[in-house]
Amino acid sequence: MMKENACTLTWPRAHSVLYGLQNKKLNRIWYVNQPEPEVKGMQLTPPLTVSASALDLIPSSISPSDCLLEVSFIVVVSFFFKSSLPMKRGYQASSSTSLGPPQSRARHDPQGGAHFLEDESTKIFAQKVADHYSARSNQTLEEREASPIIHLKKLNNWIKSVLIQLYARRGDAVVDLACGKGGDLIKWDKAKIGYYVGIDIADGSIKDCRTRYNGDADHRQRRKKFTFPARLICGDCYEVRLDKVLADDAPFDICSCQFALHYSWSTEARARQALANVSALLRPGGIFIGTMPDANVIIKKLREAEGLTFGNSVYWVRFDEEFSDKKFKSSSPFGIKYTFHLEDAVDCPEWIVPFDVFRSLAEEYDFELVFAKNSHEFVHEYMKKPEFVELMRRLGALGDGNQDQSTLSADEWEAAYLYMSFVLRKRGQPDKSQSSARRDRGSMHISEEDIMYISTDY
């Protein structure tokens, strides 16, 4: 029989353990005590009893009483957050937590048509999102570092960097949907891509992206000209047929859509247009990488909340009264709207993306799933690799561990749990005789006149 050890957990944020224990139903049960522990002062009662294998995760130099165990992910978080060394892991890889999410109501054509309508409310919400991101001003380095979610931002940058390093290859042609202010340009430059097209609905963001690409902005990481030519387009990539807009640029090797695909899920028409665009632009064998809210986690938290709002000190999510019963019809997977607020980042309507529906829809557009992982799972998986541990250290997402303020807080870590990453591959084999893209379409310096503006009538 496996030897068992007990440790009494002491930590200012011990409530995180209770949150972790709610996942007992998952195949990650490393503790053996059955009673739900309660927080009394700075301790858990009864003591958290875990298997010897779980305690092996704690280095000999770290006392168990100093550790915060996030049981649902089998990781000693305080050690993980305060060390740049790879962790010893003894748990089995698990499938994505983003499976089997609930659904919502559809927006059917009142005339009885089979298609979903792009009604005025959808356009209003899309414009509201665009205005929100356009209005966000560029921050100085000092303002950025003072952000209450600075380590969450750095963690998200690490996740995007890992995705790009895993799938981008030298000379690749890249199309970046919802590129924003160009925050990933340096990541693509480090991947030595050959051509870049950035598309965003927000005019202010695309202009800031132009400034960043040209090197006119005061960005601390900006040291030299980018090595790839680029084009910038302002328009709604969930409404416009991009194969017409980029007929002379396609096919692309890789498409990226970071923290934005859920804005297409307000109607079936927009969701389909998003996937149709990606499929039409990618070559056979091309890769689609992205990050978006994890529907399973959000609905789980909604159902655990007393009302229709949940969150912590850095974020909150609020559903409307129409979802007061917290039940969602499987026949209606589009239009599940909620309001999301993230300190110093987001404050606008968003939409649930049920992952099983997303996967099925993607298959209709010739995509196959490579992987889908919750952000927590993604971090634990790729922190096994020394090169990504070093990248995490350089980005400073976990701080240096010398002071409490220097590392990812428990509330930021919980906010990260709301998101997931995915990778899709377009079916087929690439035609080696076909050029990836006509890179002569791009420019090494983009003027305001070079920005292409497209409307829904394009």
Automatic annotation (TrEMBL):
A GO MF term: RNA binding
Superkingdom of this protein's organism: Eukaryota
Pfam families: mRNA_G-N7_MeTrfase
Polar residues bias: start-end ranges: 92-101
Main location: nucleus
Transmembrane portions of the chain: none
Catalytic reactions on record: a 5'-end (5'-triphosphoguanosine)-ribonucleoside in mRNA + S-adenosyl-L-methionine = a 5'-end (N(7)-methyl 5'-triphosphoguanosine)-ribonucleoside in mRNA + S-adenosyl-L-homocysteine
EC number, UniProt record: 2.1.1.56
Annotated localization: Nucleus
Enzyme class name: transferase
Domain (MRNA cap 0 methyltransferase) ranges: 147-427
Region (Disordered): 92-113
Keyword annotations from UniProtKB, A to Z: Methyltransferase, mRNA capping, mRNA processing, Nucleus, RNA-binding, S-adenosyl-L-methionine, Transferase
Keyword RNA-binding: yes
GO CC terms: nucleus
Methyltransferase as UniProt keyword: yes
Gene3D superfamilies, alphabetized: Vaccinia Virus protein VP39
Function as written in the Swiss-Prot or TrEMBL entry: mRNA-capping methyltransferase that methylates the N7 position of the added guanosine to the 5'-cap structure of mRNAs. Binds RNA containing 5'-terminal GpppC.
Name of the protein this chain belongs to: mRNA cap guanine-N(7) methyltransferase 1
Organism of derivation: Psophocarpus tetragonolobus
